[in-house]
Amino acid sequence: MSGALAKVTAVTNAIKEAWWLVEKSETVVNVNTDQANAVPDGADWTSDLTEAAGPNYKDITYSSSWYVWNPFGDDHESTTSITMRVFWMYGAKYRGGGAFIPTAWVEVVHLDAGYNNDIDISVNVGQPSNVGTETAPIAALPLSITVKEDSMIPGQDNHETYTVMLYGTGHGQVYG
């Protein structure tokens, strides 16, 4: 079937399903191994895909703030701000057709944890799918990025989940 367009009935993630970006406010991601993809089921993603473009990226910004009362001194506002960047290669062809995602990864580009807060950020990969047709496949790769902020101040813990949908066309959307 070499040189002929292949029908693609299933798209899979052949790399990793979940990883940590940040644990206890320390970045722990390894962008060389902490990656996911959306490729034809059964394809060797390292050698069977050609003509990938990118990377493209989407930024996700998390922020929180609250007033910290200090009975022994000045009160102040505690602010947390985080920017995460989701990168993905796109438009990769399999046997001359389709638009697949050979690799996607997430980096923390800014992390400023609030006063005495512990930040944990995790990435979970959903089931990739084909949002095109069998003869003109377009990969879709869902990611779920969860930010958990634990504060020493009672009642100030935060938990936010962002859903990211990446497409083999280079388009991407962030929800949450």
Sequence-ordered SSE layout with sheet pairings:
Blueprint: E1 11-12, E2 18-23, E3 26-27, E4 36-40, E5 49-50, E6 53-68, E7 76-90, E8 92-94, E9 97-112, E10 118-125, E11 129-130, E12 139-150, E13 158-167, E14 172-175
Antiparallel strand pairs: 1-4, 2-3, 2-10, 4-9, 5-8, 6-7, 7-9, 8-9, 10-12, 11-12, 12-13, 13-14
What would you say this structure looks like, in words?
The structure is a single chain. The protein has no helices and 14 strands. With 176 residues, the protein is mainly beta. Strands 1, 4, 5, 6, 7, 8 and 9 form a 7-stranded antiparallel beta sheet that branches. Strands 2, 3, 10, 11, 12, 13 and 14 form a 7-stranded antiparallel beta sheet that branches. A hairpin with a 2-residue loop joins β2 and β3 (26-27). The radius of gyration is 20 Å and the shape is elongated. 33% of the residues are buried.
